[in-house]
Amino acid sequence: MNDFLCRDQREDLAILPTPVHKLERFSKEVGAEVWFKRDDLTHYLASGNKIRKLEYLFHKAKSSGARAVVTCGGIQSNHARATAAICRMIGMKPVLFLRGSQPDLPQGNFLLDCLLGAEIHWMTPEDYRRRDGIMEQYRMNQPIPHEVFVIPEGGSDPTGVNGYASALLEMAEQLDLEEMDGIFVPVGSGGTYSGLIAGAALLKISTPIYGINVTLDSNPYFPDKCEAMVRSWMKENQVERKVDPSAFHIVDSFVGDGYAVPTPSGLRWIVDLMKLEGILLDPVYTSKAIDGMVHTLRQEGMKKVLFIHTGGGFGNFAFADSLSGQLAPLL
User: Fold this and answer.
1) Are residues 189 and 59 part of one domain?
2) Cis peptide leading into 17, omega within 30 of 0?
3) Does residue 61 sit in the same domain as residue 106?
4) 167 and 202 share one domain
5) Which of 10, 52, 173, 274 is 20 to 30 Å from 58 at the Cα level?
6) Are 13 and 43 in contact (CB under 8 A)?
7) How many Å apart are CA 138 and CA 241, to the nearest integer?
8) Is residue 2 part of a domain?
9) What is the largest CA-CA distance in the chain?
10) Is 77 a catalytic residue?
11) Alpha carbon distance 231, 228 (integer Å)
């Protein structure tokens, strides 16, 4: 199993294993037994799910002789912030291609990008659709191209899949996953979800894994993308397992007006989880995923579920205006 998960091909960056907590008051609120995998506690500056994927990607970067790492995301990208933080931790230069334009005031994750001294390049939505080619062109234009390593959006590629294949093994050592009616996680670029599916295939775990889509890319985009990613990972690692297309459960309808745009119900869950459990969700991923999970477990009559908290709390500090409406009765 360790060979499958490439344990010798990762940097030791995250604080692992992260704990699993049963949320007593939240469970009572939603009418089902809810457990949280606390991947918001993987690190401080590099907190969240991204660091698990980046452990493998940065090992590959170091092995290639890279001195700089290039990646991309939205202006409040958790992945970009985690990448920049890890670059500084291990002595590399962070280069970020961010969708949007220079704000008047840096806030949230972008403030941390600036404090980390990341080299920032701005991209229009049209440019962002060509992000992989633009980042590769940047690499080739550098004096020594092989010293620049490009990581795709979200760290979502077959190398990054190792992060959550390994995480599922970690969870299986903490809980009986077969007792769960469902495992829930946000889906934004697909790498975390693909890793969970890969790990479940390795361990022959039959519990359905639900990805709550937080983008406007609706079915069958993510099932197709994640299935291709898992198959590529299995081929690269010579893993002889079959993944049934029916294993991919992507739940749409909870993105709201778009990616990185908070929803009113998601914002309410941020406030409610803080008051019930002292746990901070984020306005882009986990708040929407909680909303989708609660709807699904009630609709399906689930009694016991696991939610993977992928972090992102720094993003709240860029959405104070959106959150203020939820706080008005308290102020």
Assistant:
1) no
2) yes
3) yes
4) yes
5) 173
6) yes
7) 38
8) no
9) 59
10) yes
11) 5
Write out the residue range of the structural domain in which residue 236 sits.
Answer: 7-48+157-330
* Active-site residue, from 63, 64, 77, 218: 77
Handedness of CA 57, 59, 63, 67 (dihedral sign): positive
35-77 pLDDT tens trace: 999 999 999 999 999 999 999 999 999 999 999 999 999 999 9
For residue 33, the domain's CATH number is 3.40.50.1100
Assigned token pair, 89: 């931790």
| Residue 276 · residue 154 · CB < 8 Å | no
Are residue 86 and residue 117 in the same domain, yes or no? yes
Q: Is 276 helix (H, G, I), strand (E, B) or coil?
A: helix
> Considering just the CA atoms, what is the radius of gyration of the chain in Å?
19
Count of alpha carbons within 13 angstroms of residue 224, beta-carbon side: 5
Give the model confidence (pLDDT) of 179-230 as tens digits. 999 999 999 999 999 999 999 999 999 999 999 999 999 999 999 999 999 9
Look at the chain and report how many structural domains it folds into.
Answer: 2
Determine the pLDDT at residue 2. Answer: 47
In this structure, what token pair is assigned to residue 94?
């962070």
CA distance linking residue 324 with residue 312, whole number of Å: 18
- Number of CB atoms found within 10 A of residue 55's CB: 25
For residues 271 and 309, state if they share a domain: yes
- Quote the distance between the C-alpha of residue 322 and its chain's center: 22
Query: Is residue 149 classed as helix, strand or coil in its secondary structure?
Result: strand
Residue 14 tokens read as: 């995250």
Which pLDDT score, from 0 to 100, does residue 141 have?
98
By C-alpha distance, which of 66, 67, 40, 36 is closest to 51? 40
Q: Give the C-alpha distances (Å, rounded to integers) separating 100 from 73, 122, 125, 315.
A: 10, 6, 7, 16
Same domain, 28 and 145: no
Same domain, 265 and 326: yes
Q: In this structure, are residues 193 and 211 in contact, taking their beta carbons and an 8 Å threshold?
A: yes
